[in-house]
Each structure stands twice: as C-alpha cells, then as structure tokens.
C-alpha cells in the first residue's frame, strides 16, 4: 500500500470505452465513481474486484451524468445500498438520459436519481481519505472532478484528456467555459498531479500544460 494509502483502480466499460473508477484506502472503504457497466458481464467484473479485495462501498459519485458514465448507477446503488451523489447543475442532464438511452443502444437503462448533491468547497470523505470537489463545467453544466492532494491524483471525468479536452457540442456544453475550468481549476494544481480521465490513458497536469493543442 502506498504511503498515501489511496489506491486507484479503473475499468473500461461499455461501447464508449468509459473509465469507471474505484478508489480505496487501507481501511478497505471505497468509493465508486462513474460506473459505466452496461451489461451483466461488466457488472460482474466490477463486483468481483470489490469482493476479491474485501472492499466496502460507501459512496457512489458521478463526475457528470452523460449516459456512458451513469449506466451502472442503479446496479451499484442497489448492490451496495449507497445513494447517488452528483452536482445539482447536472440533474437535468441525468433526467434526460431515459429519453435517448434506447437510441444509443441501451434500452435496458434504469434511472436512479440522486439523494445528495456535491458542492465545490466540500470534501468527499471515506475511510481515512478526503477528496476535494472542484466544480469544472463546460463539458457538462454540473461537471465536478475529485482531487486527492496527498497522493496528487485527480479523477477528472471528461474535462481534460491526454492531448485533448472534453467535447462541448452536447446540450449544456460550452467551449469557453470548459477552457476556463481547465485553466482556473486544473492548471493551478501541481504539474506532477496525475489526471485519470473518463476515457483513454492517464496523463499529468504538466504534460497537458506543455503539449495539449487545445490549451497552447
């Protein structure tokens, strides 16, 4: 176990190749972020890991509520008895999912609504870990990211990718807002912070400052 005690495990789920994250520490308490598991096999893979590591799921968090990040919300909530937590500004995005899920090939999507709202300036606590909540709209109106200063890990959703940024052509998206979020919230973090995005490989703040074509 690393000195910081935080472990980051990810799974790549569904046809959108979305990254689902499980964060845990030495207490074995864990949080599930953006469960994208879309079928029984993917649900089983997530459940198997949690079981084999002897973890206790205590929080269910969404960075934002586009379909590829919420497909497994109901499964996680029902299996582990945890309420969904999102930013209030993304509630409309979540409510819209059933209106287009079948068209995207997910007629089996089951809606679950949040019982708690995440706010910037508050922390997500589990075990011995505290994650800072940063409000980063632009890709989605209620997008948040989760930052762990001690281990310099950031669960970034669809804000910043390796050499890319989140798309802004979906409802509630705005390019200038997204760039502002990245510059004011992410690029002010230390350069050696690891960014774990919602799709694709991890990167660092320093790498993206130096070579991201959207932010040069």
UniProtKB/TrEMBL annotation:
Keywords: Hydrolase, Metal-binding, Zinc. Transmembrane segments: none annotated. Residues 17-199 form the Metallo-beta-lactamase domain. GO terms for molecular function: hydrolase activity; metal ion binding. Its cofactor is Zn(2+). The keyword Glycoprotein does not apply. SMART domains: Lactamase_B. InterPro entries: MBL_Glyoxalase_II, Metallo-B-lactamas, RibonucZ/Hydroxyglut_hydro. This is MBL fold metallo-hydrolase.
